[in-house]
């Protein structure tokens, strides 16, 4: 049986599952989420694999409260006012990430699609809150359904798509519609996704009307779940499907048969494991970007997570 009543014992049991890098499903007041430790690169990569998510779009990171959120992201006065008024609740705020460091609290770059922003939410559902407390980590948690399918509002909906996944049954979701997403990356906040929190309630807090960012706006590159991220664009030029490495290039390798390289070489997965490769993608790109003017990228199989990896690399290469 994969569905567990949301007792204290079962919440602790599923928090232990999260601690070993595996996903669990849990209720929020909006929809059921598919949660993993947001700091664990490979666990986040598994989310994309099991959801069959076609691109590495940002994931919403769930936290216990504003205090925990502020250890991960930078809140402007406007972002903080929205959080104070509407958290816990069906509001997701996209804010700048805090500077990368070696802290064990740092959220995986894959969870934010390699971007310098984070989508953060404090859920109001008591089971979600208890799980966050028991897990003692932020949870990267998109909706617990196969990509493109209806969002789940009951544990039974999750079980149809993921019969072997451990699911905390917290009953039917009260709202049944995803969270509203507000971008707080510029001086003025923008509405990025309409959801179960009416924008008029947010406008009462702000004292002015929100602008809705069009889907084709150039700023879409740095924003939110539920919107297409155009590209992660390193400063270094990318050369894809490389079988040799030129003198001024670093190498983003994959697999065992790695060509000679005089500069920095980082292997996404020496064993050819696509989950490991996805987990390492943005971290390796960032490191190569700081140490080499050009990056050669070895061929990656265009299947499963490999298709998502190639999609991101092609967007990055095309942006130069």
Can you describe what's shown?
The radius of gyration is 20 Å and the shape is globular. The protein is of the alpha/beta class and 320 residues long. Strand 10 (190-193), helix 7 (199-206) and strand 11 (211-212) form a beta-alpha-beta unit. The longest helix has 18 residues, at 274-291. The termini are far apart. The chain folds into two domains: 3-222, Alpha-Beta Complex (DHBP synthase); 237-318, Threonylcarbamoyl-AMP synthase, C-terminal domain (Rossmann fold, 3-Layer(aba) Sandwich), CATH 3.40.50. It is built from nine helices and 15 strands.
Comma- or semicolon-separated keywords:
320 residues, alpha/beta, DHBP synthase, Rossmann fold, 2 domains, nine-stranded mixed beta sheet, four-stranded parallel beta sheet, 15 strands, 30% helix
How many domains would you count in the coordinates? 2
Strand order of the largest sheet: 2-3-7-4-6-5-9-10-11
Low-confidence stretches: 216-222, 226-231
CATH architecture of the largest domain: Alpha-Beta Complex
- Helix segment tally: 9
Instruction: Look at the structure and give the mean pLDDT.
Output: 89
- Structural class category: alpha/beta
The description of the largest β-sheet is: 9 strands, mixed
What is the CATH H-level superfamily of the largest domain?
DHBP synthase
From the N-terminal CA to the C-terminal CA, the straight-line distance is 50 Å
Specify Rg, calculated over alpha carbons. 20 Å
Number of strands: 15
Give the ordered list of helices and strands.
Answer: EHEEHEHHEEHEHEEEHEEEEHEH
């Amino acid at each position: 049986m994969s569905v567990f009543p949301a007792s204290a014992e079962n919440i602790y049991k599923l928090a232990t599952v999260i601690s070993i890098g595996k996903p669990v499903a849990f209720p929020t007041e909006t929809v059921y989420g598919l949660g993993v430790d947001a700091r664990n690169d490979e666990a986040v990569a598994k989310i994309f694999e099991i959801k069959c998510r076609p691109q590495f779009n940002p994931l919403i990171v769930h936290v216990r409260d504003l205090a925990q959120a502020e250890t991960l992201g930078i809140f402007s006065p406007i972002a903080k006012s929205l959080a104070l008024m509407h958290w816990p609740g069906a509001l997701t705020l996209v804010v700048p990430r805090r500077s990368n460091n070696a802290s064990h609290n740092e959220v995986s770059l894959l969870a934010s699609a390699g971007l310098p922003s984070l989508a953060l939410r404090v859920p109001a559902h008591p089971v979600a809150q208890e799980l966050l407390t028991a897990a003692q980590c932020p949870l990267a948690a998109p909706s617990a359904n196969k990509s493109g399918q209806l969002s789940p509002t009951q544990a039974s909906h999750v079980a149809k798509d993921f019969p072997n996944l451990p699911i905390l049954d917290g009953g039917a979701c009260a709202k049944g519609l995803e969270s509203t997403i507000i971008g707080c990356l510029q001086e003025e906040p923008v509405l990025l996704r309409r959801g179960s929190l009416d924008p008029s309630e947010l406008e009462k807090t702000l004292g002015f009307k929100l602008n809705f960012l069009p889907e084709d706006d150039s700023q879409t590159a740095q924003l939110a779940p539920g919107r297409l991220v155009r590209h992660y664009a390193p400063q270094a030029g990318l050369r894809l499907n490389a079988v040799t490495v030129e003198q001024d290039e670093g190498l983003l390798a994959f697999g065992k048969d790695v060509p000679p390289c005089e500069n920095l070489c980082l292997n996404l997965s020496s064993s050819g494991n696509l989950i490991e490769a996805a987990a390492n993608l943005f971290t390796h790109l960032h490191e190569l970007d700081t140490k080499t003017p050009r990056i050669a990228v070895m061929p990656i199989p265009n299947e499963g997570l490999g298709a998502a990896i190639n999609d991101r690399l092609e967007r990055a290469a095309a942006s130069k």
